[in-house]
Write a structure and sequence with these properties.
Elements (H helix, E strand, L loop, with lengths): L2 H4 L1 H8 L4 H6 L19 E3 L10 H7 L13 H12 L1 E5 L2 E4 L10 E7 L8 E6 L4 E7 L3 H6 L6 H4 L2 E7 L1 H8 L2 H23 L3 E5 L4 H8 L7 E9 L3
Antiparallel strand pairs: 1-6, 2-3, 4-5, 4-7, 5-6, 7-9, 8-9
Helix pairs in contact: 4-9, 5-9, 8-9
Bound molecules: flavin mononucleotide.
Length: 244
């Protein structure tokens, strides 16, 4: 028996497929929803400067984008950080209670949370931050240089401490799974792919370099951010910096 067909990954793919039969017979998975927005009340807040989009056209950015892993040791402009965050999760419209964003999300349920490991940004101290989508500001989780610790938890990849900032995306699976059941897991990873690609293209358009990072020790990054790994867990990272 080929190993692929025995793997948990293959079983998940099979079990989470929509089929005509299952659409009508499948018992709904009973998964309670989660709060739609995460906030860290009482944390120190960092307001982000206004961002005035300029730079390369979408077409140029699409053509130019490459995974860039080496960065100059200069601080990032805070306006550029604002632009990158806006590309990731900026609110672009309201529809009832839904805050629609730059990146699409299955069912507009937005399971993905954005955290930052800031290594070097003009006027914003190094540390771990959470992006509060509703107020569009940063919430400080821990002050200090965490790049090396992050890198150690990402198989020693130097981008984590050499980049000016590392985006860390977590998922709160219940947000999507309460509607879509286990199929929602597929959607969570699609959602984060959209978000990451927005950041990669925005970085390119701003003359910056970025690299997606999928190789990391999940539990250890969760621990660094104070996530329990069950209700919320890390799903993807991307380093962004000033290219060499
Ligand atoms: C899901 C995913 C995970 C990745 N993880 C890493 C990683 O951990 N480290 C790394 O250096 N590059 C990583 N990459 C970047 C790929 O190596 C890169 O996209 C690929 O070599 C193609 O090069 P390009 O991005 O310059 O077009 C990842 C890319 C994707 C899409």
């Amino acid at each position: 028996m080929p190993h692929y067909l025995d793997s948990p990954g293959f079983k998940f793919l099979e079990l989470s497929k929509h089929t005509r039969e299952r659409l009508f017979s499948r018992k709904r998975e009973n998964i309670a929803p989660a709060e739609p927005f995460k906030q860290y009340p009482g944390s120190e807040i960092v307001e982000l400067p206004e961002f005035h989009p300029e730079g390369q056209s979408l077409w140029e950015a699409l053509k130019e984008r490459r995974s860039i892993r080496k960065y100059r040791q200069l601080p990032l402009e805070p306006e550029d950080l604002s632009g990158l965050i806006w590309a990731a999760q900026g609110i672009t419209a309201k529809l009832g209670n839904y805050l629609l964003r730059t990146a699409p999300s299955a069912g507009a349920l937005y399971s993905i949370e954005t955290y930052l490991c800031i290594n070097s940004v003009q006027g914003i101290g190094p540390g771990l931050y959470h992006y509060n989508v509703v107020f569009s500001h940063l919430e400080l989780l821990a002050k200090g240089s965490f790049g090396k610790e992050l890198g150690e938890r990402a198989f020693g990849q130097p981008m984590c401490w050499k980049a000016q900032v590392v985006f860390i995306w977590s998922a709160i699976p219940r947000r999507t799974m309460s509607k879509y059941g286990s199929r929602g897991v597929r959607y969570i990873f699609m959602d984060v792919g959209h978000i990451c690609q927005n950041v990669l293209l925005a970085a390119t358009a701003l003359g910056l370099g970025a690299c997606p990072i999928g190789a990391f020790l999940d539990d250890e990054i969760d621990e660094l951010l104070g996530l329990d790994g069950m209700e919320e867990t890390t799903v993807y990272l991307a380093s962004v910096g000033i290219p060499q």
